[in-house]
Every structure is written in structure tokens, then in C-alpha cells.
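Write out this protein's structure.
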Amino acid sequence: MSSTRRPAPPPLEANDQAVIAVITAAWAVALIVVLVLRDQLPAGERWWPWTCLAGVGLGLWGLWYVPWMKRARARSAQRRARQATSKDLT
């Protein structure tokens, strides 16, 4: 029995900022719900608002960092391409 494999499909591209924004919004909704219901939380579960706040904070940081990282990668790729073409010309 021979097994021929098909080539792997190309990786999927996602809109990173949209994904981060949706997840950050979900953390914000969770924070609001937990704050509204905080009196009903058991004493051992009072850390939930802090977890939601950390999720919102990290999401906001991600909304800033991901575009910055993509721009830095693009600049680095341009620099490498220029260096490669300048080496080819010499």
C-alpha cells in the first residue's frame, strides 16, 4: 500500500487586531459581570476581578504591540532586501 501525501495547505492569515479586540472586549464584559456580581462571589473567589482586569490590560497592550511588531518586521525585511540587492550589485 503506497501512501502519497498531498502538499500541506498554506497557513491561514488572521486579522490579529480583530482577534485581540474581540478577546479584550470579552474580558471587559467579564469584568463588568464580575463587578456587578462581586457581592455574590465566595470569599475564596475574590481574585476574579483582578484576572479580568489583567485580561483587559494585556489585550490593550496587545492592540498596541502587534501593529508595532508588524511594522518592525516589515522594516527589518526591507533592510535585509536592500542589503541583499546592494551585495548583488557589487
